[in-house]
Design a protein that fits this description.
Number of strands: 0
Largest sheet: none
Keywords: Membrane, Transmembrane, Transmembrane helix
Protein name: MFS general substrate transporter
Helix content: 55-70%
Structural class: mainly alpha
Number of domains: 1
Shape: globular
Order of helices and strands: HHHHHHH
Length: 193
């Protein structure tokens, strides 16, 4: 082997061509229209993901009584369980991709997959359990999992001092909305009994 064919590693003191300069740290705006619009968008993503997943009881009742009568209630509950599992555990993959800078592909891809899965759910035929499982359980679960974790983490890119408070606000507000909606509907249905 000649001396010209050897690969010499770059020196640690020489800057690489592909590295960005880190001479000045990035200043977070801590407010502004774009930052608060991001908080609102993250909140809406969380409301849509958890709202759809937590309302599976309505779907399950419809499936058991009218749509998938040939499957047991236990088998039908697997659809919602898989959806909820993939919503949360999808963060393992989505978190790594988000950290590598793929926020927009995750958001667009997850949103597209969720909407496509719901369209496919509308085409599922009665008593075809596997079609509902694939579209509502797997498709919508993976799509929701791809959008959920980035929606939690994205607010930290716009706020440095209020980051923890905003994340807490997002979670609490989502759960408070659902609590009061469920309470309202429960009280409303009890009045009709």
């Amino acid at each position: 082997m000649s001396s010209n064919s050897q690969i010499i590693p770059p020196s640690s003191t020489e800057p690489r061509k592909d590295e960005k300069s880190t001479s000045s740290p990035q200043v977070l705006p801590n407010g502004g229209l774009r930052a608060w619009a991001t908080v609102l968008g993250a909140f809406l993503v969380q409301v849509c993901n958890f709202g759809y997943t937590s309302s599976f009881g309505v779907y399950q009742d419809f499936y058991v009584q009218e749509y998938i009568t040939n499957a047991s209630p236990s088998a039908i509950s697997w659809i919602g369980s898989i959806n909820a599992f993939l919503l949360i555990s999808g963060g393992v993959v989505a978190g790594r991709l988000y950290d590598r800078g793929y926020f927009y592909p995750l958001s667009w891809g997850g949103s597209f997959l969720t909407v496509f899965s719901l369209f496919m759910l509308s085409l599922a035929k009665p008593d075809h359990y596997y079609q509902v499982l694939l579209s509502q359980g797997l498709g919508a679960g993976i799509g929701g999992g791809l959008t959920y974790v980035p929606s939690v983490a994205v607010t930290s890119h716009y706020f440095s001092t209020k980051c923890y408070e905003l994340t807490l606000f997002q979670f609490l507000f989502v759960y408070l909305i659902y609590f009061y909606l469920f309470l309202f509907f429960y009280l409303h249905t009890c009045d009709n009994l």
